[in-house]
Amino acid sequence: PVLLEVKGLEAKIAATGQQILRGVDLTVREGEVHAIMGKNGSGKSTLSKVLVGHPDYEVTAGTATFKGRDLFALEPEERSHDGLFLSFQSPIEIPGVSNVDFLRMACNARRKSKGQAELDPLEFYAHVVPKLEMLKMDPTFLNRNVNEGFSGGEKKRNEILQLAVLESEMSILDEIDSGLDIDALRDVAAAVNGLKRPDTSVLMVTHYKRLLDYIRPEYVHIMEAGRITQTGGMDLVDQLEAGGYATLSTA
Ligand code: ADP
Ligand code: MG
Ligand code: MG
């Protein structure tokens, strides 16, 4: 079954009117892993953010459905409750809110929308500790404020911890590999692989083959000037590594 279907998606920056997405088509089925690559500024993060409903962008044409529902008719929170997750390229700090409270609130909001009972603090602790261990995160991270003073690598681990806690069906991981040393990359990739289920999908945005060696995509897309201009397998990545984006450009 199709999880995410994007057709002819166009979007502009709300504040300036600048057109960024110029007709994106993308279909992601349950169980699939996709990667989007493309030059800086081609619109990869914009696509990710438009799908989760970031207020900086305005959709001007096209459609997107998630589990068959019109994504753009849903509030950002509803998209998250429905199982759509975005790991931000630059995760934000939330001063004054402890990580464990934030995670439990997000988890319970999603559970509630699935008709499941909310977890009390003790139950939540039991739910989250194995996930911390999977990410090799120290339990003290639970009591710190969300991302406050976290290193780049710790923020990325914390993003995947959120994904693990939410048990989202569709995860969009925007440059999850940026700023990670090789050990952290292995841990994060192992966690993402460990979270895969037959009904979940992953959409990774990355510049580097390294990540794709750890989380193998079935489909690789090249984004160029706000559109997906090519789709293939790992062979596209090898072409890129050999000759750069110029060899793949259709412009
Ligand atoms: P990528 O992730 O592929 O590197 P982005 O989607 O981040 O590209 O950006 C695409 C283009 O849109 C860039 O030129 C970027 O500067 C611009 N852009 C994206 N978001 C904003 C914003 N909120 N305000 C102004 N310009 C933006
Ligand atoms: Mg970029
Ligand atoms: Mg980006």
From TrEMBL:
Gene3D superfamilies: P-loop containing nucleotide triphosphate hydrolases. It comes from the Eukaryota. Pfam families: ABC_tran. One of its GO terms (molecular function) is ATP binding. Residues 4-250 form the ABC transporter domain. Keywords: ATP-binding, Nucleotide-binding. This is ABC transporter I family member, chloroplastic. It comes from Raphidocelis subcapitata.
